[in-house]
Amino acid sequence: MPLRYSQVTPREVYLNRRRFLASAAGLAPLGKSPFSTSEQPTPLKDVTTYNNFYEFGTDKSQPAQLAHTLVTSPWSVRVEGLVAKPRVLDVDEIRKLAPLEERIYRMRCVEGWSMVIPWIGFSLGELIKRVEPLGKARYVAFESFYNSKQMPAARWAGIDFPYVEGLRLDEALNPLTLLCVGLYGDLLPKQNGAPVRLVVPWKYGFKSIKSIARIRFVEKQPPTTWSLSNPREYGFYSNVNPAVDHPRWSQAKERRIGEFFKRDTLPFNGYGGHVSALYSGLDLRKYY
Ligand code: MTE
């Protein structure tokens, strides 16, 4: 197999090149994030051709082939519910809401594979503080865009749409939680959830909802797509936890895409130092 650009170029050189590409795409200025891992990013080709995006089919290769029908411009996100200042934000406004950073995060899918992805975005908290949540707001509910004409394969996916997800407000405010508008120095490809998605690196990949249309602040724990579809197998929290098996398989190990041998999965996907305090006193076997 030929070597890829990201495998032969020194990390600093290609990151600088990425930053240059990003400014060309209107994503500048990009800061460096202290949250980034120094692990080798997964090649762009794998990041953009091995996807879960059930609106465009359940096969990993389908989103890259079918997501071109998604219309991402114009695009707005409704931010509403228990907030003092509800807003409808155009995606161009979102990109300018706070300084963009490149954040290289480890991502762990519930199915047992993992990647390292150079995302672009800013902490979701930057958006949250601008809408001023009311005291009663305890959770944040997210909803993806859904349109059956743009997403004809969705009818065979076996789950209901729009895709919905949720976080406790304190999880949403944790600085690691990324509102993401790009990857690898460019705007988000459609198959990766253009034009705006969530990235929650200490949770299984399905919490990182794509192509967001609505963000709602609520009092009660909101329903989530995978726990609606199969509550025995998927809970609300979905923190990466090698000690709690999925009912049908172990979660102790993972295969990093591009590697042959499996590696140990880390509690909270290695981000425990940033997030474990959110769960002190919570039985993570019960709240999986
Ligand atoms: N968001 C929507 N709207 N629809 C989906 O099917 N799949 C989730 C998540 N977000 C999904 C979604 C799952 S299971 C994973 S693993 C990640 O997106 C995959 O993100 P990636 O393709 O950018 O790696």
Question: What does this protein structure show overall?
Answer:
By secondary structure, the chain is of the alpha+beta class. It has one domain (5-279): Oxidoreductase, molybdopterin-binding domain (Sulfite Oxidase, Chain A, domain 2, Alpha-Beta Complex), CATH 3.90.420.10. It contains nine helices and 13 strands. It has helices at 5-8, 11-24, 44-49, 62-66, 91-95, 124-131, 169-173, 225-229, 272-275, and strands at 30-32, 76-81, 87-90, 100-108, 113-123, 139-144, 164-168, 178-183, 186-187, 197-199, 212-218, 253-256, 263-264. Strands 1, 4, 5, 8, 9, 10, 12 and 13 form an eight-stranded mixed β-sheet that branches. Strand 8 (178-183) and strand 9 (186-187) form a beta hairpin. The termini are far apart. The mean pLDDT is 94. The site of ligand MTE has 16 residues, from loops.
Features of the shown structure:
288 residues; alpha+beta; Sulfite Oxidase, Chain A, domain 2; five-stranded mixed beta sheet; 9 helices; binds ligand MTE
CATH homologous superfamily heading: Oxidoreductase, molybdopterin-binding domain
Low-confidence stretches: none
Main sheet specs: 8 strands, mixed
Cα-based radius of gyration, to the nearest Å: 18 Å
CATH architecture: Alpha-Beta Complex
Shape: globular
SS summary, helix count: 9
Number of strands: 13
Mean pLDDT: 94
| Attached small molecules | ligand MTE
- The CATH class designation is Alpha Beta
The amount of helix comes to: 10-25%
CATH topological fold name: Sulfite Oxidase, Chain A, domain 2
Structural class by secondary-structure content: alpha+beta
Query: What's the helix-strand series?
Result: HHEHHEEHEEHEEHEEEEHEEH
